[in-house]
Amino acid sequence: MKRGAGIFAIRVLRMAVGFFAGLSAGAEENAKPVVIAVDVGHTLEKPGATSARGRTEFEFNVDMARKVKTVLEQRGFRAFLINESGASIGLADRPALAAKEGANLLVSIHHDAVNDKYYRDWEFEGRPQRYSDAFRGYSVFFSEKNPRAMESRMLAELIGQAMREQGFTPTHHHAEPIAGENRPLVDPDRGVYHFADLVVLKRAEIPAVLVECGVIVHREEETALRDPKVQDRIAIAIAEGITRLVRAEESQAAGAEPAPSDLASPAAGAK
Ligand SMILES: [Zn+2]
Question: What residues are neighbours of ligand 1 (ion), with CB under 5 Å?
Answer without folding.
Answer: 41, 48, 110
